[in-house]
Design a protein that fits this description.
Number of strands: 44
Number of helices: 41
Radius of gyration: 37 Å
Largest sheet: 8 strands, mixed
Distance between the termini: 69 Å
Shape: globular
């Protein structure tokens, strides 16, 4: 904020020099000018406080640009914040600085009031397209469009507070997307940080997110840090439009990089605006010296500096005094201290010191207006409220010291964010876990903080104040009725809602049950009230609803849980019995819904969740319950449609295969035979629980489900938890919840449900931050850096050709790919370093085979992209480039991907013509087969496509030629002249216009590179491909451990073992892994998990593959084949076990069985080479020879026939045996050389770089990107499996 005021003073000075300045000039020239056409076309509204002290001049400059571009946009200007014209009057009012009590200076540089959102809203209401303001609070530029869009009342302070919080969170840009995050190491992509987006609903709840494909991180922690930034008292954050209370804000992670924010409260604003003035306070000179060389830190000590850079600053009222210091300090560079290496940045200059002066001014004394097209209108601003009293949040639990405590850095138990306003420092501290909070309170007392900060505090004036932010529960203070709350699901739901902060009202017919549940809730610290009511009678319901509203003044939610059923075959149900079930379940639901709506929710909104009496619907003996269920289902849908206009959401939960606490009351054959058999009939062999139903009810009631209405959701053991197997415990009560046992198990089911929990959350015991962890991390980071260095050499060499391309009006190949891809969409590069250190390549600068390739999205279509890297050797194809093309075509075939080729190639590298010729012909054959298979190929010919290279576009389905660039011909002018004597130009033989207008080879003629790519994107838009793509919309949880920790898991020494489950825990959803045959063989690990919400089988190793491990893995592959689950192979094996025991136990037989299973399975296979992958173990783990759909490697990985040391020893033993057999004395020196040279050669040929160069994998990936890559690949495979192609016999031909 202080920096902003300094900017205002600078603008004021600029305006004095030039009356047309005084605003942010670059806002007009650099920001708006290039974007105005798009803003106009897309009807985007723009609000900016770039007007500074001269917003009218900003408007005039922008208006000139609009007229020059022929655009008609309405610009509004907000006026009234600048108090400089009133300075003389202000000097007579005895104004004091609001913090220090100092008098108002006589000379001011700037003086601006912080206005609010109302004038911006009014400008938008009157049709303004662009609103320019002077000084407004930052949050107002977000609140104003919300007031305009949703027409919120200016007295709906809770919504105004939520809207202001949305603005507060994003006002500092990438700070809330991880740009200034305590745990900055968790943030990836700092070079492409995503700026925040808030998606705000009409009820003012909002989600913080960022653009897809950008760097950064949006988590509860990153958003929480921004919430506490510079807010001072969280219960009284004073803004012009509202006094905001952020003390009960609730944050919830609702998806990757998506955080839901609710719970801000508000009160009437104050009657004053805050004014920030600036005034000159002398001059300042800052000089910096660099201390360089050996022992630099020690050399800095004599001048009492803790830094190697010495900084000296002086301040004086007169500029001349500062300049005298600036001239004299120059001598210090040679004589002040050892190793001073000169002044940084040359001789220092004196700069004016601008100080901030803050005070309050009555709103009534300001005339706020808007100017639209020269017409000025005064704006009525609400007067505010003088009473700003509120109930202070009580201090929570404070830990008591016993002398047994340990000392840890604060950062290990808390996040923090600091920010300054004037002389005020705001530090927000957020506990990482609730249990840490009492200890933080005990240590961060006002006294201890003051003592710690004493070096910057004024001992007489400064003080430290600590505020509490309790956070809020999802249903804080909401009034919710739960019928049938005395037992079963109703009891469970009442407990859960009370624990989440609601005022719960439970109803039922039996007072004893209601009293017992009320006592339980009160003991747990909840709020509860009970009413005895028979909901089957309409007048009872009407009176009960009225009593609740009268007592609590509101009704936010209703859970219609009351019901009943009894087992009976259809032929045995009497009329009275059928009527009783229908009245219990259907009639009472109708009465309750109607009265809740009529008496309260029609005017105030609310949420209703019904219960369909379907606990046994469709089961033998429960037909009457099914009939009632159908009625409740349809009643829910009708109410949702009719009452939605009033802001009332109505949903329904239908319990399916669940256990009920009432089951023990059943008798006869139903209890003896049917109930005990239920679990065995459920697909997951488990029953749902009452707690699962209550969790679903709470979710549907909450704001998080604000987008759901009219839905009936079936919750049971067959569906509610996906593939997770969580059989219930073997006790009558399980899993405590705030003192309430959530899952009651009837006695009749205890024996049937007493099973072990199979699906487990992997518990990782990696000592993050330990010395060993850091050593491992640094070693892997060094290997990542080595790979990136090679990649960068190739990119740098390509970009070195930019001047040449610019001169020709061409775009570099890398930029062509970037231009073709959808903005912010994912892209997985394929085979990027193929050919590294092979043929002509020495250091990686020529790696890649002359091709840039990968899978990405073009106009929303997932496709394979291949671009000639014509910036290097004219894009000629090396032998490995041809092999790479064959691999890319194989991927396109297998994954049913269209292909986009951006071609500009001199054809085959003639130095290796013999190695290229035959395989090059195979690529042409594949093109024909791709077309025949129904896989479109689109080619943009950016330049040369000569000789055999001309057939690449010729065999494509769509060809786009670029005017004055395309040269697509079999024989160029020199060859034509030599062979036939004919003279012709390149344009006549193969130019773009010729192919588009005469030969008909090209379907489209582009003006330049960019236009050619634009046309290609248009072609993809019209392929009818997206429309036939089966969409995935899966929800899933991120792993419980950060991907960053993968760096420290893999030992620096390949000889040191590690547990691959620690890797699995960091790449699978929620770190959950369902392991198979865990006890049978520990070295081969098999199990199921989900990645990105998609089921997958995982096979990995913790060492060699034993006979048991081979059998186990082969069987697991058969199980995945049976269930059509893709397989993920994570390589970490020395190969098959050797030795007498292994041989006698059939290692060859069982190993062969495993290789057969891997080779013949039809399910998709993905391999990640995590560490070692040696010998036939590589085959067994689906290395390249076993044809996985995709295979990627980590930079530390090794693939070889055997370990390098073992290979050296083997050759030594063989050579020594030959020498002895020949009667020679073994030559130890020669044998040592043979062993060492063999080991060194095999070590070099086993590295990740060597293997990726040989095309033994599809690329090297950063371990931290493994999960993202796997999700992308699995989605690619999923699309392929669900896509139906339209093959034709011969492919597309140009007739």
């Amino acid at each position: 904020m202080e920096d902003q005021q300094i900017t205002m003073s600078i603008m004021a000075k600029a305006m004095m020099t030039n009356p047309e300045h005084g605003y942010a000039l670059d806002f007009v020239s650099r920001v708006m000018t290039p974007l105005l056409k798009k803003i106009s076309d897309k009807k985007i509204k723009v609000i900016s406080n770039a007007g500074g002290v001269n917003p009218l001049a900003c408007r005039d400059a922008l208006q000139k640009v609009l007229e020059a571009q022929g655009l008609d946009l309405k610009i509004a200007v907000v006026l009234g914040d600048d108090l400089m014209p009133q300075q003389a009057e202000l000097n007579t009012q005895n104004i004091k600085e609001m913090f220090s009590g100092e008098d108002l200076p006589s000379q001011l540089a700037s003086c601006n009031a912080y206005l609010g959102a109302v004038p911006i809203r009014d400008a938008l209401d009157q049709g303004a397209d662009i609103v320019i303001t002077g000084r407004v609070v930052d949050s107002a530029v977000v609140l104003a469009p919300l007031l305009h869009e949703y027409q919120w009342s200016l007295e709906d302070y809770d919504k105004l507070s939520q809207g202001s919080l949305a603005g507060h969170i994003i006002e500092c840009g990438a700070q809330c997307t991880g740009g200034n995050f305590t745990d900055w190491r968790l943030v990836q992509g700092f070079d492409n940080m995503g700026f925040p987006i808030v998606e705000v609903k009409a009820d003012a709840s909002f989600i913080v997110t960022k653009p897809k494909g950008t760097g950064g991180l949006v988590s509860v922690a990153t958003v929480a840090e921004q919430v506490v930034y510079e807010i001072g008292n969280p219960q009284a954050y004073l803004l012009p439009d509202v006094t905001a209370d952020f003390s009960k804000v609730k944050l919830e992670q609702v998806g990757e990089d998506r955080v839901l924010v609710i719970g801000a409260k508000g009160r009437a604003p104050t009657q004053q605006y805050k004014v920030s003035a600036t005034y000159p306070d002398g001059y300042r000179v800052l000089v910096s010296f660099l201390i360089a060389g050996r022992e630099a830190p020690e050399k800095a000590q004599p001048i009492n500096s803790r830094e190697v850079v010495v900084k000296i600053a002086v301040k004086h009222m007169f500029k001349e005094a500062c300049m005298f210091f600036a001239s004299e300090i120059a001598q210090a560079s040679t004589g002040m201290a050892p190793a001073l290496a000169g002044i940084v940045g040359g001789r220092p200059k004196a700069s004016p010191v601008i100080k901030l002066f803050s005070f309050l001014v009555d709103k009534s004394k300001l005339s706020v207006a808007i100017d639209i097209n020269g017409q000025r209108q005064n704006i009525q601003i609400p007067s505010g409220c003088s009473d700003q009293s509120f109930d202070v949040v009580a201090v929570g639990e404070v830990a008591q010291f016993t002398g047994q405590e340990i000392e840890v850095p604060l950062v290990e138990i808390a996040h923090a964010r600091s920010g300054d306003k004037g002389n005020h420092s705001n530090i927000g501290v957020i506990a990482r876990q609730p249990e840490y909070l009492p200890w933080i309170r005990a240590n961060l007392t006002e006294e201890k903080v003051k003592e710690y900060m004493q070096h910057v505090l004024d001992p007489e004036k400064s003080k430290v104040i600590r505020y509490e932010i309790t956070g809020s529960d999802a249903f804080q203070d909401q009034v919710i009725i739960v019928t049938g709350g005395g037992s079963g699901i109703g009891r469970c739901t009442a407990h859960e809602l009370a624990a989440l902060g609601a005022q719960v009202v439970i109803t039922g017919r039996k007072i004893e049950k209601l009293e017992n549940v009320s006592k339980e809730i009160i003991e747990d610290g909840g709020k509860v009230h009970f009413i005895v009511c028979d909901n089957r009678e309409e007048h009872n319901v009407k009176e009960m609803i009225a009593e609740v509203i009268e007592k609590f003044g509101r009704l936010d939610g209703l859970v219609n849980n009351a019901g009943g059923q009894f087992p009976s075959n259809l032929e045995g149900i009497s009329a009275n019995g059928f009527d009783a079930v229908v009245r219990n379940n259907l009639h009472s639901t109708f009465y309750l819904m109607k009265e809740a709506y009529n008496q309260w929710m029609a005017k105030h909104g609310g949420s209703i969740v019904n219960m369909a009496a379907d606990m046994w619907g469709g089961m033998p003996g429960m037909g009457h319950s099914g009939a009632a269920r159908a009625g409740v289902d349809n009643l829910t849908k009708t109410a949702a449609v009719e009452w939605g206009r009033s802001g009332v959401r109505v949903n329904c939960v239908a319990p399916g295969w669940v256990v009920s606490s009432g089951m023990d009351n059943y008798t006869g054959d139903f209890a003896k035979f049917i109930i005990p058999s239920l679990a065995g009939n459920v697909p997951l062999k488990r029953m749902g629980t009452e707690s699962e139903i209550s969790s679903a009810i709470c979710y549907l009631l909450s704001e998080a489900a604000g987008f759901i209405s009219g839905m009936t959701i079936r919750i049971d053991g067959a569906a509610s938890l996906g593939t997770r197997m969580y059989p219930l415990a073997d006790a009558s009560n399980s899993e405590s919840f705030n003192g309430f046992h959530r899952a009651f198990i009837p006695d009749v089911l205890k024996q049937q449900l007493n099973r072990r929990k199979f699906m487990t959350v992997l518990q990782s015991e990696i000592a993050v931050g330990s010395e060993q962890f850091e050593q491992n991390k640094q070693a892997l980071l060094a290997q990542i850096a080595e790979v990136r260095a090679v990649q960068n050499k190739n990119i740098e060499k390509s970009y070195a050709a930019k001047p040449k391309f610019d001169k020709k009006g061409k775009i570099l190949p890398h930029e062509r790919v970037r231009l073709a891809l959808d903005a912010d969409s994912p892209f997985v590069e394929l085979c990027g370093l193929v050919g590294y250190a092979m043929h002509d390549d020495k250091d990686g600068s020529d790696a890649g085979g002359g091709i840039i390739s990968g899978i990405g999205f073009v106009s929303g279509v997932r496709c394979l992209i291949s671009a000639s890297n014509s910036a290097i050797k004219g894009g000629t194809m090396s032998p490995m480039g041809v092999q790479k093309t064959l691999r890319l075509q194989a991927i396109a075939f297998e994954q049913k991907l269209p292909m986009l080729t951006l071609t500009e190639s001199g054809g085959a590298n003639l130095n290796y013509a013999a190695e290229v010729f035959t395989y090059g012909g195979m690529t042409f054959a594949n093109q024909a087969r791709l077309s025949a298979a129904g896989l479109p190929q689109v080619s943009v010919v950016h330049g040369n496509a000569t000789a055999g290279g001309a057939y690449q576009p010729g065999l494509s389905d769509y060809v786009i030629a670029v005017r004055k660039q395309t040269e697509m011909l079999l024989a160029g002018p020199p060859l034509l002249l030599a062979a036939t004597g004919e003279v012709a130009t390149a344009e006549e033989l193969g130019g773009a216009e010729m192919h588009a207008q005469v030969a008909g080879t090209a379907e489209f003629l582009a003006e330049n590179d960019a236009d050619g790519i634009r046309i290609a994107r248009e072609v993809f838009e019209h392929l009818n491909w997206k429309e036939q793509t089966q969409k995935l919309n899966l929800s899933y949880k991120e792993p419980r451990y950060p991907a960053e920790e993968l760096l420290g898991i893999i030992p620096a020494s390949p000889k040191q073992p590690f547990d691959m489950k620690d890797v699995i825990a960091r790449i699978v959803d929620d770190s959950e892994f369902f392991e198979v045959k865990q006890e049978y063989d520990a070295l081969t690990v098999c199990g199921w998990a989900k990645i990105g919400g998609l089921h997958i089988g995982i096979i990995t190793n913790n060492g060699p593959i034993t006979p048991q491990g081979a059998t186990k893995a082969a069987q697991f592959i058969h199980l995945c084949e049976q269930t059509k689950r893709p397989l993920l192979f994570l390589h970490n094996t020395t190969g098959f076990m050797v030795g007498t025991d292994a041989e006698q136990n059939g290692i060859i037989k069982h190993g062969s069985k495993l290789i057969q299973a891997v080779a013949n399975t039809t399910v998709p296979k993905i391999s990640i080479v995590v560490a070692g992958s040696y010998g036939a173990g590589n085959y067994a783990m689906c290395g390249r020879p076993l044809s996985p759909q995709f295979i990627f490697a980590w930079p530390n990985s090794h693939v070889a026939v055997m370990g390098s040391a073992q290979a050296g020893k083997v050759l030594r033993i063989v050579a020594e045996g030959k020498q002895k057999a020949s009667g020679m004395e073994p030559n130890e020196q020669m044998l040592d050389f043979l062993e060492q040279s063999t080991a060194a050669k095999l070590e070099q040929q086993s590295t990740a770089l060597f293997n990726t160069a040989m095309l033994h994998d599809d690329g090297i990936i950063d371990p931290r990107d493994t999960r993202k890559v796997l999700i992308f690949l699995l989605e690619t495979i999923y699309e392929a499996e669900h896509r139906k192609l339209n093959p034709i016999r011969f492919g597309v031909s140009r007739l």
